[in-house]
Amino acid sequence: MTNRFKLNTQYPWGMLASIYITQYIGVAFILSAAVAILRQQGVALDKLALLNLAVLPLMGKVLYAPLIDKYRLSFQGKYRSWLIIAQTGMALLLAAAGSMDFQHQFVWIIAILALYAFCMSVQDVAIDGLSCKLFAPEARKLASSIQFSGNLLGNIIGGGLILMFYPWLEWQGSLWLLAGLTCISLLQITLFTEPEDIPDSKTYSTESRHLFRDIKHFITEQKHWLFILALYPIGSTCGFALLNPLLIDSGWALGDVGFAVKIFGSAVGLCAALLATPLITRFGRAHAFIGVLFIQVLALLLMIPLTLGFTGKVIVYTAITLHFISFPALLVVSSTIIMDKAAESLHKATFFTLQFSFASLLGFIYSSISMAIAKHIGYSAVVIAGILISFSIALFISVTLKRVTTTKETLNTY
To answer: Do 219 and 226 meet the contact criterion of CB atoms below 8 Å apart?
Structure first.
């Protein structure tokens, strides 16, 4: 596939990294650091549960992605204009939340954080659409690596470092620091010039066609890939979703669990996400995807000793390491393929969000199911079943992807 855009500058890697980092620092703060901070200040548990409601707007991305694809705001560039509005809103809302007293204005803080999550989800859709638009096939693997390594770095900053420095920053300083970090990426996107679309005969749609017809065409043509997206999250959720409650049941302190998974695990994942780029370059999309799936099966095998009560730090950190090597790398490879497919349409943000949200939603469902089943049959049985299922899925996907790539001779699509 040829690049359909004549870029006057090099790819904006710094801007992309900055946006993906700031995209996640706020959510990590809301769901992790803020819970600990507000609990320490005496906020009741039932009130803390409301923090989860603040991120509900993230679930609706696929509903308004078509609007972001279709409408251009007053600023230059279709996706750039949405990014400017979203990031401006994010920075202002974080600053406003930091100016409030959480003891007396807690409900208002929740409302503001919910609006922040909405703006963040708009940013997420817009930057994914811009990435599909900007990057040629050979550059997409690095773009995907930057996306997920940026998300993990944002997770470390928002969920870990802010919490560590909270005694000095306090509530206002923490939120204002997050707002300031968001302004860095806002400045970068303001200085960026987005290239205009050049119609291509290979695109799925033209302006005269309806979106739903395009979606139907996309689903029909990509039914094998969508089936793979429905299956592969099982491996990453059926075992590792049980790790936190398993460690707590084994007597691990909350702080030790948080450090092992949130800080150490995210740091390993950040490196794995970056290393996924040379992996794809060396082996191609299909073989890299298959290889990482089998590494994920090995990560699940390491969960078995934990379920049998062997929860020493060496075996726990080994299991965490292998999981955070496989899972972020799998996200990078699958996201690269998702970007390939979305880039063939004028509805880039919509089709990227459609594919990624589909896999993410099923991942949440599989995670919930595995935890519910573990209550009745135990951790060990769930993990062993997960290993067998994941290995079978890896074999099935291996055969499916190899058959497709043999007939299409594609590295750009798969």
So the answer is: yes
| CA–CA dist 96, 98 (Å, integer) | 5
Find where tokens 């090597």 sit.
Answer: 325
What does pTM read for this prediction? 0.73
Let me know the angle formed at the C-alpha of 277 by 83 and 287, rounded to the nearest 5 degrees: 120
Q: What are 12-30's pLDDT values in tens digits?
A: 888 988 998 888 888 777 7
The reply to whether 211-408 shares the fold of 13-190 is: yes
Cα 282 vs. chain centroid, distance in angstroms?
Answer: 24
Distance of CA 128 to the CA centre of its chain: 11
Hey, what are 322's tokens?
């292998």
Q: What is the DSSP letter of 195?
A: P
Report yes or no: 297 and 413 within 8 Å, Cβ to Cβ.
no
The CATH number fitting domain 13-190, selected from 2.120.10.10, 1.20.1250.20, 1.20.1270.60, 1.10.645.10: 1.20.1250.20
**Count of other CB atoms within 10 angstroms of residue 209:** 13
In angstroms, rounded to a whole number, what is the distance separating the alpha carbons of residues 86 and 83? 5
* Tokens 């470390």 sit on residue: 156
Q: Where are the domains of the chain?
A: 13-190, 211-408
Q: Kindly state which CATH superfamily the domain 211-408 is placed in.
A: MFS general substrate transporter like domains (1.20.1250.20)
Residue partners of 148: CB distance under 8 A and separation at least 6: 20, 269, 273, 328, 331, 332, 335
pLDDT single digits (tens) 282-331: 888 888 888 888 888 888 898 888 888 888 889 989 988 988 888 888 88
d(CA 4, CA 12): 17
Amino acid (1-letter code) at residue 27: V
Nearest to 131 by CA among 148, 154, 153: 148
Helix and strand numbers (H, E) in the chain are 19, 0
